[in-house]
Amino acid sequence: MGFLPEYIKISGEGGIVEKIKHGLTYRFFSENNDDCAINLHDTRGVGIRIEKLNKYFEEKHVLKDIDLEIFPGETFSIIGPSGTGKSVLLKHIVKLESPDSGEVYIDNHPIFSSSEQNPPDYRYSMVFQSSALFNSLTVGENVGLWLREKRICKEPVIRQIISEKLSLVGLEGQESLRTAELSGGMKKRVAIARSLAMNPDLILYDEPTAELDPINTDELANTILKLKENTSNTTVIVTHDLNFALYISDRIAMISGGRIVDIGTPAEIKVSENPVVKAFINTTTKGIK
Length: 289
Prior knowledge:
Blueprint: H1 16-22, E1 48-57, E2 60-70, E3 75-79, H2 86-93, E4 101-106, E5 109-110, E6 124-127, H3 139-143, H4 145-149, H5 155-168, H6 184-196, E7 202-206, H7 214-230, E8 234-239, H8 242-248, E9 251-256, E10 259-264, H9 266-270, H10 275-285
Parallel strand pairs: 3-8, 3-9, 6-7, 7-8
Antiparallel strand pairs: 1-2, 1-4, 4-5, 9-10
Helix pairs in contact: 5-6, 6-7
């Protein structure tokens, strides 16, 4: 009597105190008076370099000797038909997939073969094709989820960040809406606001226009363009929507059959002499001028 069972830990990793901390916001256990544990004000663009990247799924060779460079701060789109490896390539950049050979460098640091004690310091987020919102949470709770789960900031600051990010995507004052009340376009914008809550240096979009009508697609494109006016992060977009890519991108890469077949500015892509690119343009845009 008066003793706890031997298997119950009070402190340290996995202990009761740590579990209690997990459910509380930053302010309860902060060792200083800062509003946030990390700087959420400044962003920077990261550089990405992909060299000889190969990926197999059993016998299927999905990515074939991919060489690609994305410059810091640019909006870069990877286009191509469905099933050509676009999303698989994107997942390698955030280490959701591992290559069979080749390497991805972030700010010249290899992310797969590195044994460095101090890897490059950057934040990244990803907007998934399905938006991946939690139906049980409100719009505001979805946007602030990472900040609260990681106890990054004090609660008043979290609420301020939620408000700011929703305003950036045109959803000011919509914190209390339920996910079920949102249109497809609104869900995409909430997902973007959630990604922006951590002020990422790199933000990635996987088929952002999927299941959107032309009006919502146009709103989403303008949202992404507006965000680029307020941040300096690097943006990578995977899409089969050529019109969308031509409208928002600094540069575009075309992938076909698991290989990069052409890279250029929107103007260069539109006049490309590559037969694969020309066929894709004529099919998807009816010969856009």
